[in-house]
Amino acid sequence: MHHSSSVFHRPLQAAALLTLLAGCGWEPGGNALAQSSVAPVAGFTHVRTLDGIQEYTLDSNGLTVLIKPDHSAPVVNFQVVYRVGSRNEVTGTTGSTHLLEHLMFKGSDAYNDAKGNSIKQYLESVGAGFNATTSSDRTNYFGTLGKDHLEGYIAIESDRMRNLWLREEDRQAEMTVVRNEYERGENNPGQTLYKEVMATAYQAHPYHHSVIGWRSDIENVPIGKLRAFYDTYYWPNNATVTMVGDIEPAAALQLIKKYYGGFPHSPQAIPQLYTKEPPQQGPRRVILKRPGQLGVVMIAYKGPDGLDADMPALDVLGAILSSGKNSRLYRALTDKGLVLGANAGIRSQPDPGLFMASGTLAPGIAHEQVEKALIGELERVKVDGVTQSEIDDVISQQRAGEAYGRDGVVGVANGLESWITVGDWTYYVTYIDKLAKVTPADVQRVAKKYLNEDQSTTGWFVPVAK
Question: Which site in 125, 131, 340, 392 is 20 to 30 Å from 220, CA atoms measured?
Fold first, then answer.
């Protein structure tokens, strides 16, 4: 269907893990308002404006609103990000965030299939592109459509924030859809190894379980638990609405007030995750044996959270290792016939993530050989560092990618969404400058700091005959 659980990456890590995780469902302006904190519509507080992106808070319920006018075409991307993902689940409810995302399309008293005005029927009738995805850290719902149809979409999208039907028959139907998705994932060696590595690297923190959850939880979670989940996290003060496209801020805010203004602030504080992963004290290994064609080696090192000052240098390191045919892993492993593809990089997440290096084995090559070659390249950075010209290449690639990604409302909206998830949307504007300040000494320093055997989890996927 049109949903997907997503292991999502920020644009810089376009190369990182994409081949292994394929099928997971990834996914200039003025500063006129900066001087004034007066919102163009009563009932909103203007928070800040950066690079033409305006942030507001709806005073009555704490909804965050981001608006980026772009009048180049008569279209708007409307997106809602809820700060809830699989990191908010516990034993018995793994996969619930994703299952609830599916149930969000099942309708309400006001908008449903029987009436002919369900969200899917409406968006398809107006030719919109739309979807929803779940990650470890957030759930998002979005559509891109002609500006004349925007209000109709906001009416339905806002309604399901609080008025959703949650029915056992819908849970049964969607559970089988999600179970099929789970089974498809289980047939992907890179994806299954990734799940095993995560479950081994994280013992206390809920990054331990995958976004899609454990099969028995998907099958058995009671509708009452899904209702409790919805009633805990689906509130305006736990959401950010973004509008990018052919819209004026005052008109946009009027629509938000009209359709979201009637919802209260959550009755209780949104629960915050306080579990921290304890320090790792020695290397961990996991071997997964199952039917498959090709072996995989994956090495994961404990890293920082996505807003940490070390992240730009780690991102540059990942790109130097694996972005393009001049990258170090390509030259050392792919060119030499050891692997069919290699990746390295770190995901930006609200909680500390993992720096991963991985390779899909070429036929007839031993796991030991690829593991040794991967570690050899990481050690080479620690001992000899990287060159300024390697960094310059990464930055120019990134600047070109940024320009391409910002050409169109969807690219801007998705770039904003990824940083909203990490915890600060302004990094969408400022991160490229942080990358450009990275020096060879920074890259060598973070390699030494994080790429240590005692902080590592190494996974092998070993294909066996059926």
Answer: 131
CATH 3.40.50.2300 fits domain 3-16+25-260: no
CA distance linking residue 85 with residue 330, whole number of Å? 34
pLDDT digits (tens, 9 = 90+) for 272-301: 999 999 999 999 999 999 998 899 999 999
Q: What's the pLDDT tens digit per position in 114-138?
A: 999 999 999 999 999 999 999 999 9
Strands 139-146 and 129-134: antiparallel
Q: Are 41 and 24 in contact (CB under 8 A)?
A: no
Q: Spell out the alpha helix ranges (H) of 149-308.
A: 150-162, 168-186, 189-201, 215-220, 223-233, 249-260
Q: Write down the CATH number for the domain with range 284-464.
A: 3.30.830.10
pLDDT tens for residues 157-166? Answer: 999 999 999 9
The residue extents of the domains of the chain are 3-16+25-260, 284-464
CA-nearest of 359, 356, 336, 337 to 347 is: 356
Q: pTM value?
A: 0.91
In three-state secondary structure terms, 133 is: strand
According to DSSP H, which parts of 221-366 are helical?
223-233, 249-260, 311-322, 328-329
